[in-house]
Amino acid sequence: MVDRPTLFITRLLPQPVMDAIPRHYQLIAEPVDGPSTAEQLRHGFAQADAVICTLNDRIDASLLAHATKLKIIANYAVGYNNIDVSAAARRGITITNTPDVLTDATADLTWALLLALARRVVEADAWVRTGDWSGWTPTQLLGADVSGKILGIIGMGRIGQAVAQRASGFRMSVLYAGRHPIDRPTGVTWEWHPLDVVLAKSDFLSLHVPLTDATRHLIGRRELALMKSTAYLINTSRGPVIDEAALAAALETRTIAGAGLDVYEQEPVIFPGLIPRPNVVLLPHLGSATDETRVQMGRICLDNIAAVLEGRPAPNRVLCV
Ligand code: DGY
Question: All domains of the chain, ordered by start, with CATH?
Answer without folding.
Answer: 6-100+291-309 (3.40.50.720), 103-282 (3.40.50.720)
